[in-house]
Specification:
Helices cover about 80% and strands about 0% of the residues. The longest helix is centred in the C-terminal third of the chain and has 18 residues, at about 40-55. It has one domain (about 1-55). The chain has four helices and no strands.
């Protein structure tokens, strides 16, 4: 991929920047989103928030 080529061309000083650019890769982002159960995490977060809100009353 383009980022692999960039990584190979990076000097030590630029290595961090090259690693950061990987997170902007839409293919990698899509793969990550497909691996994480986003809907399940949102549901758990809402349940936790509802419990916290109920306890604060």
């Amino acid at each position: 991929t383009t980022y692999k080529v960039m990584e190979e061309r990076c000097s030590e000083k630029e290595l961090y920047m090259c690693q950061v650019l990987k997170y902007e890769d839409p293919v990698r982002q899509e793969a990550a989103l497909n691996m994480v159960p986003v809907d399940e995490l949102k549901e758990k977060a809402l349940i936790s928030l509802a419990k916290l809100h109920g306890e604060s009353r």
